[in-house]
């Protein structure tokens, strides 16, 4: 059994009753867990799994694959403010998608984890802006050692950027 503190960055339906929960944690980096029975109304996970919330969690490592078994979740911060604005939620989603693009699973990335926490905290306090999105990209590029090219450096090395980037920038330019 392993434990850590992380932020949920994606939830995916696995079966009628189970979810795949993608976490960004300081201890394990980007990690995928299966929350068996999480979609049942009487599940131990009921009300504890939502996008961008921060929690202490425990999981059992799968030795043969990348989907680990989620055992327990203790929510620390729901980050409700992010769900009140479509712009904020969209940009928060972009932040998570960008990390999923550039990071490998199951490798500790404390600096990237801290960047995500700071980015989500900023969105919660100040709201989404073009400046915040571009700053986040610059920081990701800096941490990866890609220099000051930000999105161009990421595009050159990884061959693409998350598809939601253009929609985020369009929406933020209407503000």
The coarse silhouette is globular
Query: What helical percentage do the residues reach?
Result: 25-40%
Q: Order of SSEs, N→C?
A: EEEEEHHHHH
Q: Strand-residue fraction?
A: 25-35%
Number of helices, where a helix is a run of at least 4 consecutive DSSP H or I residues:
5
What's the arrangement of strands in the largest beta sheet? 1-2-3-5-4
What is the CA-atom radius of gyration, in angstroms?
16 Å
Number of domains: 2
Explain what this protein looks like in three dimensions:
38% of the residues lie in helices and 25% in strands. The chain is an alpha+beta fold. It has a 5-stranded mixed β-barrel. α1 (86-102) packs antiparallel against α2 (110-126). It is globular.
Write the layout of secondary structure elements.
Blueprint: E1 2-13, E2 19-25, E3 29-35, E4 54-60, E5 67-77, H1 86-102, H2 110-126, H3 130-144, H4 151-158, H5 164-173
Parallel strand pairs: 3-5
Antiparallel strand pairs: 1-2, 1-4, 2-3, 4-5
Helix pairs in contact: 1-2, 1-3, 1-5, 2-3
């Amino acid at each position: 059994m392993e434990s850590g503190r992380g932020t949920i960055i994606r939830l995916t339906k696995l079966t009628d009753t189970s979810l795949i929960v993608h976490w960004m944690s300081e201890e394990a980096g980007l990690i995928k867990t299966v929350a068996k029975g999480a979609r049942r109304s009487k599940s131990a996970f009921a009300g504890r799994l939502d996008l961008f919330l921060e929690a202490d969690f425990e999981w059992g490592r799968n030795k043969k694959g990348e989907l680990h078994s989620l055992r327990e979740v203790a929510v620390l911060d729901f980050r409700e403010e992010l769900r009140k604005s479509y712009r904020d939620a969209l940009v928060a989603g972009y932040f998570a998608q960008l990390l999923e693009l550039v990071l490998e699973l199951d490798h500790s990335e404390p600096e990237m984890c801290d960047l995500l926490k700071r980015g989500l905290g900023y969105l919660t306090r100040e709201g989404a802006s073009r400046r915040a999105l571009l700053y986040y990209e610059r920081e990701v590029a800096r941490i990866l050692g890609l220099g000051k090219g930000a999105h161009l450096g990421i595009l050159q090395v990884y061959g693409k950027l998350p598809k939601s980037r253009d929609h985020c920038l369009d929406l933020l330019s209407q503000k």
